[in-house]
Design goal:
- It comes from Anaerobacillus alkaliphilus.
- This is GAF domain-containing protein.
- The chain has helices spanning about 5-15, 25-40, 75-85, 125-140, and strands at about 45-50, 55-60, 70, 85-90, 95-105, 105-115.
- The chain has about 150 residues and is of the alpha+beta class.
- The protein has a single domain (about 5-140), classed as GAF domain (Beta-Lactamase).
- Strand 1 and strand 2 form a beta hairpin.
- Helix 1 runs parallel beside helix 4 (about 125-140).
- The protein is globular.
């Protein structure tokens, strides 16, 4: 299966989660578990929520190098939140993609995708996919009670 087909499959599967859950926590868990199950083994994905001056790991799947808690102002989570867009960072043979999601203009969290394989090239197609998924998380997440 080529990359385009795999991303389309992920879009479809993630898009169906909102119809199967009744809480925001279950929605986030469903997204991460679905993505984790469909991505190759060298990938990891997580959702970090934003509150009380910290980015805090809520749910993750696979190998992730980011700490569980990151203070506002530190690291790539803060850079992503300032930019307000998907942010790509390459470090130590890994590629990390940070995709913010919002409740209106309020930053709610960041979707993190990490690839342990230095040979994986992030393309515009990957960035568009992450933008779509993070927008979906923000829009659908509003229908549930908060954390």
């Amino acid at each position: 299966m080529n990359k385009s087909d795999k991303l389309d499959e992920l879009r479809l599967e993630v898009g169906m989660i909102a119809d199967r859950v009744s809480t925001c926590n279950d929605f986030y868990i469903g997204i991460i578990n679905t993505m984790g199950n469909l991505l190759p083994h060298q990938f990891g994905v997580a959702i970090y929520n934003c509150s009380n001056g910290y980015f805090s790991h809520f749910i993750g799947y696979g190998n992730l190098s980011e700490p569980k808690v990151v203070k506002y102002g530190d690291g790539m989570f803060s850079i992503c939140s300032i930019r307000g867009e998907v942010t790509i960072h390459k470090s130590q043979g890994k590629t990390l993609a940070y995709a913010p999601f919002y409740d209106g203009h309020h930053l709610k969290g960041i979707l993190l995708a990490e690839c342990q394989d230095a040979r994986y090239d992030v393309t515009e197609e990957d960035i568009i996919f992450l933008e779509e998924i993070s927008k979906f998380i923000g829009e659908k997440g509003r229908h549930y009670l908060s954390f």
